[in-house]
Amino acid sequence: MNLDGESEPPALDRNEIHQWALSSYEEGGELGSMGNNSPSLGSAEEEIARELVRVHQEAYGQPVEDLRVAIHETFVAVVMEVRLTPAEEALAQAGSGAAVRTTREEFSQAIGPVYKAIVERATGRRVEGFVSRVAVEAERPWGVEIFLLAPRVDRVEALIE
Description:
- There is one protein chain.
- This protein is of the alpha+beta class.
- The protein has one domain (14-160): 2-Layer Sandwich (Muramoyl-pentapeptide Carboxypeptidase, domain 2).
- It has six helices and four strands.
- It has a four-stranded antiparallel sheet with strand order 1-2-4-3.
């Protein structure tokens, strides 16, 4: 039990986190199935923003204060203002911001498959790489997620011909 008398969630190992993350997104169907029928840029950005906010809230138990998505030909960039948990705030104020940063970045990698699935579904493109960074010592803590997109199928076919 925590200090508020609420029961603590069970501790999860890395494999259980991956399973939890993937199971929360599997019901949506085949990933990246849009192929060349790509959605509009605006609707893809909106979908990514909406779903990342939802997953972040579920995973961290804290809301995202602000989230911006930019889709480029070769990558998707997401910048978000985040709210630290009370424990993270205490650690950051005590000079242990590096510990908070490391934990957040490791957790982002653990739930990375869900983040990637969101971007793949919204863009219709496979995500080849993902990186996450967070600035916890900032006056307003913020993070950035970068998704490297696989080449579009039509561009690859043009290169082969």
